[in-house]
Amino acid sequence: MQHAKRGESGATLIVTLIFLVIFMLMTISLVGSSVVNVKVAANQQHGVEAQNAAQQAIEQVISKDFTASPAAAAASVPVDVNGDGNADYTAQVAVPACQTSKPIKNTDLDTTNADDVSCFIGNGNQNTGMLTASGAGGGNSLCNATQWDVNASVNDSATGTSTTLHQGVAVRVPTGTACP
Q1: Domain extents for the chain?
Q2: Are the C-beta atoms of 107 and 139 separated by less than 8 Å?
Q3: pLDDT for the residue numbered 25
Q4: Contacts for 119 with CB less than 8 Å, ≥ 6 apart
């Protein structure tokens, strides 16, 4: 009987050690995988924050009359994402570029819309001169429809985030406003 105990004594220990090594390798692999996932999620968060910062900078520029002096609209805009009072990103807004400008026809204006009144020849009076002798709609109004490209870039060396966002903007301007 003593002879049977000697043959079994080391096999259980070896099998247990093998399983312990397998479980340890799986645990190390899972920890490494979760670290990679956290880094990917952080990179995505930084990218979205940078896009939002660029959008906020563009909105600041287009909320003012940037068409009067496009070169003056170019700016460096600090953006606080987390509300702690410190700028997390700085967006660089380029000079807005006028893409197209075309006259607005008198027939495209609405006499009941206050924004359209200043564009009418005669400034919205009943006798606007909008009709030709044949009674058809007349020519151009006193306004042009312009299309602008406003873009902002965010480059953050701390996070390695870089993004550029373009925004198309339609603006009605008085006829004769330069569209370079």
Answers
A1: 11-174
A2: no
A3: 93
A4: 104, 109, 141, 142, 143, 172
CA triplet 50, 54, 57: central angle to 5 degrees? 140
pLDDT value at residue 163? 92
Q: What is the DSSP letter of 137?
A: B
Q: 3-class DSSP state for residue 166?
A: strand
Residue 171: strand, helix, or coil: strand
Name the token pair of 45: 């968060």
Contact 125, 71 (CB under 8 A): no
CA angle 59, 61, 63 (to 5 degrees): 65
Rounded distance between C-alpha atoms, residue 45 and residue 54, angstroms: 14
Residue pLDDT, tens place only, 111-147: 888 878 888 765 544 444 444 444 445 678 888 899 9
User: What's the whole-model pTM score?
Assistant: 0.69
Q: How far is CA 61 from CA 69, 80, 87, in A?
A: 11, 17, 18
| Residues facing 68 on adjacent strands | none
Residues facing residue 23 across a β-bridge: none
- Reading the block at residue 91, the tokens are 């967006």
